Amino acid sequence: MILLTEPAASSLQGELTPPGDKSISHRALIMSCLAEGQSTVEGLLVSEDVLATASACRQLGMTMRKEGGVLLIDGVGGAGLSAPDAPLDMGNSGTAMRLLAGVLAAQPFRSSLIGDPSLSGRPMNRIVHPLSLMGARIETAEDGTPPLTIDGNPGLQGISYQSPIASAQVKSCLLLAGLYAQGETTVSEPLKSRDHTEKMLPVFGVRLRGGCGVSGGSKLKGADIHVPADISSSAFFMVAAALVPDSDLLLRNVGLNETRDGIIHVLEAMGADITIHDRRRFGEEDVGDVRVRYAGRLRGIDIPAELVPSLIDELPVILALSAVAEGTTRLRGAAELRVKESDRIAVMSNGLRTLGVSLTEYPDGVDIEGGAITSGRVDGAGDHRCAMSFAILGQVAPSELQVSGAENISTSYPAFSEDLDRAGGAIRILEGGRKYG
Ligand code: S3P
Prior knowledge:
Bound molecules: shikimate-3-phosphate
CATH architecture of the largest domain: Alpha-beta prism
Number of domains: 2
Largest sheet: 4 strands, mixed
Shape: globular
């Protein structure tokens, strides 16, 4: 799919409630599936990634229906999963594959997990190795990528695992497997990654051990979950409002979990005007309304490496905005960006170079010299967040910008272009909008 953006003709104004949080939506479905009794989920993200998790859970026996905007889910209980009669297709979603692999490793049946070409190139040894230490039997392709063939083992042993990377997918995979293992399973990591799993397990009645651990045999009971708007989707609009002169945009119900809010700290450090109104809780998650007002040209900064896990998915849009900020923006400590839905350092660097930006790539980051950009055609390379980042930059390009490889926007934000258009941005689908909207 190719998107066409134009310089925004007016400022961005008004209010917007971005779609539900993707990470929380995956977890709400998986935990509701494993729970005994009924759960309700309000505000679930309806996007391709989350639908992949929903259909996998259905293949494992979960049933769900919608009633007046609320999803009612009948869980099967931890021991009630049925063997799927076909491979579980996780589409583009690393979260779906890695979290479900933790559950499936402990089941008394065989299963396999497959994905699209992007997911089929992503590293799975980061979960296969620690799960194997627990006794799991998992085969991957030769280079440690999907498909995963899991010969379930109901006799897993708990472990205490020191993860070499800050990854919520690894952590959550092991905690879910740990629910079935003998003894305790605990996970530590070099920097704290998003903690939605640790926040949600107690809502389903599971007692955590020492902050990030579970006891084998813990049972989940049906719960009521209210999903906040995704700060990662909201980030595109925060940046748009910070870039387009005279903008004043209010983003409602945005999840402000402190393991996810690095984008707000970085935008403020660059000079953006952001105020949070009505901080409140949706269950265990912090939420607020985020107002962003244009405050002049932003300044480049050194992005603190310790903030990287809290803004990992927002780095593509931060790199895009750095291209038009004043001075240099330096990013380091972000090697993980190279193994996301695409190599995001390479995809963003290639696109920005096409627009005349001078930059230097490093294995774990990039230095970007802010300045004037040209227009032209850039490639989102099938990566939803890179495509949306270029589309936001297009709002301040000198003339039309084409963004190819944008079809996977529907994995996280199916209504992105409609929402941008409604807020006052200038965007339309030039070609191949089949999967979109
Ligand atoms: C996610 C964790 C992060 C993030 C991804 C969602 C999650 O990945 O990039 O988009 O929901 O657990 P890693 O665990 O690989 O850092």
